[in-house]
Design brief:
Strand content of chain A: over 45%
Distance between the termini of chain A: 37 Å
Structural class of chain A: mainly beta
Distance between the termini of chain B: 41 Å
Low-confidence stretches of chain B: none
Strand order of the largest sheet of chain B: 2-10-9-5-6
Shape of chain A: globular
Order of helices and strands of chain B: EEEEEEEEEE
Oligomer: heterodimer
Low-confidence stretches of chain A: none
Number of helices of chain A: 0
Order of helices and strands of chain A: EEEEEEEEEEE
Largest sheet of chain A: 7 strands, mixed
Shape of chain B: globular
Radius of gyration of chain B: 13 Å
Mean pLDDT of chain A: 91
Radius of gyration of chain A: 14 Å
Helix content of chain B: under 10%
């Protein structure tokens, strides 16, 4: 299957700093990527849809100035958590769809990035 | 409003027993339904999708539009089926996928 890679897989930062998480599609071009957030023992919550070459579409309740998304190329989307605070600590997961793999719209997921804000 | 409900947080069965993981959805239009699975220490991956009408690893799921359900079933559970299972609807022709709360399946020896 298609491979999606996230980096870093684990990051610890001080409160007030910004952290960037990268999501790459390694063997396909992804015009659309999705960023999810997962709290411990809870489901994935969709944060935003990242569109290559245009602005991201944020879900209701997600602060776009807090979670900056850039999708500058067909294989890379970045999520920057700005001025991070302890409540931003979470597991962030990206996913992408390969538009050439049939009509089913299967999502391919990254391994996730665990952010801990001290 | 778009909503997907997986009523069971945890389902524990013995090896060889039948298993059914429930999923009900409330979605405008005719959504496409998926089941994703996450095994221990692995990333989330697709298990099956309703439009394919396929059986993957012995699992099947039938979309019941009348009951707005998409329950996942397997007649004989195996220990390696132990994982977290998520029901995930998507608007037909759209891209955005939402996820249910998930059901943790534990298959005992």
């Amino acid at each position: 299957g298609a491979v999606v890679s996230q980096h870093p897989s684990w990051v610890i930062c001080k409160s007030g700093t910004s952290v960037k998480i990268e999501c790459r599609s390694l063997d396909f071009q992804a015009t659309t990527m999705f960023w999810y957030r997962q709290f411990p023992k809870q489901s994935l919550m969709l944060m935003a849809t990242s569109n290559e070459g245009s602005k991201a579409t944020y879900e209701q309740g997600v602060e776009k100035d807090k979670f900056l998304i850039n999708h500058a190329s067909l294989t890379l989307s970045t999520l920057t958590v700005t001025s991070a605070h302890p409540e931003d600590s979470s597991f962030y997961i990206c996913s992408a769809r390969d538009p050439w793999r049939g009509l089913a719209g299967e999502l391919f997921f990254g391994e996730g990035s665990r952010l801990t804000v001290l | 409003a778009q909503r997907v409900t997986q009523p069971e947080k945890l389902l524990s069965v013995f090896k060889g027993a039948p298993v059914e993981l429930k999923c009900n959805y409330s979605y405008s239009g005719s959504p496409e339904l998926f089941w994703y699975v996450q095994y221990s220490r692995q990333r989330l991956q697709l298990l099956l999708r309703h439009i394919s009408r396929e059986s993957i690893k012995g699992f099947t799921a039938d979309l019941n539009k009348g009951e707005t359900s998409f329950h996942l079933k397997k007649p004989f559970a195996q220990e390696e089926d132990s994982a977290m299972y998520y029901c995930a609807p998507r608007r037909a022709g759209g891209f955005k996928t939402i996820f249910g709360a998930g059901t943790r399946l534990f298959v005992k020896a």
